[in-house]
Amino acid sequence: MTREDKILKDLKSGTSDGLEELIEGYYPEILRYCIWHTPDRAAAEDAVQETFLKVIRYMDQYTHRGKFRAFLYKVASNTCKDIWRSRKPSDPLSEGTAYTEAAFETVESDVDLRLLTARLPDGQREVLLLRFAQELTLREIAKVLDLPLRTVQSRLRAALKALEKQIGKGDYYP
Predict the structure, then answer these.
(1) What is the reported pLDDT for 149?
(2) Which class for 77: exposed (0-12), middle (13-18), buried (19 or more C-beta within 10 A)?
(3) Which pLDDT score is estimated for 6?
(4) Rounded to whole angstroms, how far apart are CA atoms 19 and 15?
(5) Number of H helices, E strands in the chain
(6) Using CA of residue 173, residue 45, residue 155, residue 66, what is the dihedral sign?
(7) d(CA 158, CA 107)
(8) What is the DSSP letter of 90?
(9) Which of 88, 127, 134, 138 could bridge to 155 as Cys pair (CB 3.0-4.6 Å)?
């Protein structure tokens, strides 16, 4: 039985061990994902909490097929989209995101990645961020974005070519 299987079994049986392991195991990476997809850190933290609440609330309806991580990212993605939709048009966007978590030792590379990907189309940027910032597999990305695997592969390839061209020209900033 894998760790993921044990967590899911504990969650479905209602033990607190499963909830603790779920949060300890996935909180940092889901928070990092939400920071990329929400207007500020507070909204990201709210999105993470809402993501875990939704996962727990609908756990009895979830059928495990070995893709729980992709399911978790899908819930986080939809939650972040809901936050953007519910944001008032007059709400100002934050100028930058403050990284204060000890787990974020790669702040500079995150900022560089954000700057490099700013000019990419949304679909390419999302695939690139899920692949390199979140380290999801191509199959997991396809599941999260509801896209065929070939589409994910072609978007990733196109994004990498565009970045290579940008870097070759020395044109890094938006």
Answers:
(1) 95
(2) buried
(3) 80
(4) 7
(5) 8, 0
(6) positive
(7) 25
(8) T
(9) 127
Q: Where are the alpha helices (DSSP H) in 38-148?
A: 41-57, 68-86, 107-117, 122-128, 138-145
Query: Of 10-24, 65-79, 121-135, where does mean pLDDT reach its minimum?
Result: 10-24
- Mean of all residue pLDDT scores within the chain: 80
Please give the Cα distance from 101 to 105 (Å, whole number).
8
Distance CA 53, CA 58 (A): 9
- Tokens 């779920």: give the residue: 22
In which residue are the tokens 């020395």 written?
A: 170
Percent of the chain with pLDDT over 90: 26
Closest CA to 73 of 31, 103, 17, 10: 31
> Could you give the CA distance from residue 171 to residue 75 in angstroms, rounded to a whole number?
35
Q: Which residue has the tokens 């970045």?
A: 163
More confident of the two residues 154 and 1: 154
For the chain, the farthest-separated pair of C-alpha atoms sits apart, in whole angstroms, at 56
Cα–Cα distance measured from residue 99 to residue 105, given in angstroms and rounded to the nearest whole number: 9
pTM of the entire predicted model: 0.63
pLDDT at 79: 92
**What's the rounded Cα separation, in Å, for the pair 17 and 81?**
30
